[in-house]
Design goal:
The chain has a domain at 70-141 and 180-274. β2 (147-150) and β3 form a beta hairpin. It has 279 residues and is mainly alpha-helical. The strands form two sheets. The protein has a two-stranded antiparallel sheet with strand order 1-4. Strands 2-3 form a two-stranded antiparallel sheet. The protein has helices at residues 36-59, 63-66, 76-81, 85-97, 102-123, 131-138, 168-173, 186-209, 215-238, 242-266, 268-274; strands spanning 142-144, 147-150, 153-156, 177-179. Keywords: Endoplasmic reticulum, Hydrolase, Lipid biosynthesis, Lipid metabolism, Membrane, Phospholipid biosynthesis, Phospholipid metabolism, Transmembrane, Transmembrane helix. InterPro entries: FIT, SCS3. Its EC number is 3.6.1.-. This is Acyl-coenzyme A diphosphatase SCS3. The chain crosses the membrane at residues 40-59, 79-97, 109-127, 188-208, 220-240, 246-264.
């Protein structure tokens, strides 16, 4: 009588294992993507947070509210963490990945590369200016500068003749500010995009390990997710218009929805190439 095939020989066996001790083995368990209910809940948490923030702002239009510590862009959490948000997201993600099997690590890093590429396209570079700067200028936005450096030296500019710079970084470098146009909220984009990515990668492992068995890796991920949620709430209260926050959320959720909600569930080739979150 032939022996039963091992899980490694079973082509239908893919997914995660059920204890930390199994992390040292290569015994996979059947595929188990998050339920649609979980995905819908994740998709709803962040716009609900923005709605809560807007409600708080409307009900508390007092000077005390506007003078909150978190209403200042120089608050330490913003300066140290949010401004370098993708670095910190990557840092805790790599902590999380360090406990996975070698085969799962490689696929997890591929999914991280896709998330990073979307962050770069939206905020850093997209065949020139990033997507958010292109949207701003295409919707009529310009850079208003106080000084212009030319061959004769710095000159005062007529503020009625705003200068056009390709990127927000160029504008800030020349001492100007964005004016007009639709200024998609970069904070809302980053915090939404990073949070949905981390939740999707972390939840399958968290379901296996539980609250008590996660170790420092789980603590780091959950701590950063809590901070990202809080800063999203603060951004929703003190900064940007409702439309700018709404588009920031939508752009932040689109890559997550395409990959985790649709492709990994419905496209076998994508699931084969990129794997699914788990240990």
């Amino acid at each position: 009588m032939d022996p039963a095939p091992s899980p490694l020989e079973n082509p239908e066996s893919n997914g995660y294992v059920d204890s930390k001790s199994d992390l040292e083995t290569e015994t996979p368990r059947p595929l188990d993507l998050p339920s649609p209910t979980t995905e819908y809940f994740l998709a709803a948490v962040y716009p609900a947070t923005l709605l809560l923030a807007s409600t708080f702002y409307l009900l508390s239009p007092s000077p005390a509210t506007s003078e909150s510590y978190f209403s200042k862009k120089g608050n330490l959490i913003n300066v140290i963490f949010v401004k370098y948000g993708w670095f910190w997201t990557t840092f805790v993600f790599l902590m999380h990945v360090s406990r996975l099997r070698a085969s799962s690590k490689a696929k997890a890093l591929l999914r991280w590369l896709l998330a990073t590429a979307w962050w770069i396209i939206v905020t850093q570079w997209f065949l020139g200016p990033p997507l958010m700067d292109r949207a701003f200028t295409l919707s009529g936005g310009v850079c208003e500068t106080l000084h212009q450096v030319n061959q004769a030296g710095p000159d005062m500019l007529d503020m009625n003749k705003p200068q056009v710079w390709l990127t927000s970084a160029d504008c800030k470098f020349h001492g100007g500010r964005w004016a007009g146009g639709h200024d998609l909220s970069g904070h809302v984009f980053l915090l939404t995009h990073a949070s949905l990515f981390l939740w999707s990668e972390f939840l399958p492992v968290f379901r296996v390990e539980g609250i008590m068995g996660g170790g420092i890796e789980s603590t780091a991920v959950l701590g950063l997710l809590a901070m990202w949620w809080w800063m999203l709430l603060m951004t929703g209260i003190y900064f940007h218009t409702w439309r700018e926050k709404a588009t920031g959320y939508l752009i932040g959720a689109v890559q997550w929805a395409l990959l985790y909600v649709w492709a990994l569930r419905n496209v076998p080739k994508a699931r084969f190439a990129l794997g699914v979150p788990g240990v």
